[in-house]
Amino acid sequence: MASKGAAALEAMIEEATADTDGHEDERAGLSAMIEEHLAVPFTTTVLCVEVTVRQVELTADSIAAVCARGRHRQRVGLLDLPLPTPAPDGAGWIDAYRHWAGR
User: Fold this and answer.
1) Which of 65, 60, 71, 100 has the alpha carbon at shortest distance from 83?
2) CA angle (27 as vertex; 102, 79 as ends), nearest 5
3) Is the peptide bond preceding residue 86 cis, with omega within 30 degrees of 0?
4) Would you call 64 helix, strand, or coil by DSSP?
5) pTM for the whole thing?
6) 17: enclosing H helix or E strand
7) How far apart (Å, rounded) are the C-alpha atoms in residues 30 and 10?
8) Contacting residues for 47 by C-beta, under 8 A, at least 6 apart
9) How confident is the model over 20-57, as pLDDT tens digits?
10) Residue 74 to residues 21, 38, 47, 55, 82: CA-CA distances in angstroms?
């Protein structure tokens, strides 16, 4: 998936946060869009270990991917999660979240 430009990311952020009130509500709106559109599971590499991203969760202060390897589970913040090439369908919403977080 090609990276989206700033204007496209801003439009996605506006769509996700249209009826929100405050930073936490905006993050929740972006989380809902990621959960709705991101194709999971997908495989990626975290710290040189192949993991499967099973789902995405809204935490108290971020949005995190639930990564699995065997019986082990670990949350990795989406701001830190390396995406595979090609990126899974819906990964543009992760890009939008990263853009929003960097404002």
Assistant:
1) 65
2) 45
3) yes
4) strand
5) 0.92
6) helix 6-17
7) 12
8) none
9) 999 999 999 999 999 999 999 999 999 999 999 999 99
10) 30, 18, 12, 11, 14
**Before 82, cis peptide (omega within 30)?**
no
Beta strands in 1-103 (DSSP E): 42-46, 49-58, 63-69, 72-77
Using the predicted structure, report yes or no on whether residue 85 has a pLDDT greater than 90.
yes
> Which secondary structure element, helix H or strand E, spans residue 16, and what is its range?
helix 6-17
Decide: helix, strand or coil at residue 12: helix
Tokens in use for 93?
């919403």
Decide: 3 and 15 in contact? Cβ < 8 Å: no
pLDDT band for position 3 (cuts 50, 70, 90) = low
- Amino acid identity, residue 89? D
d(CA 28, CA 31): 5
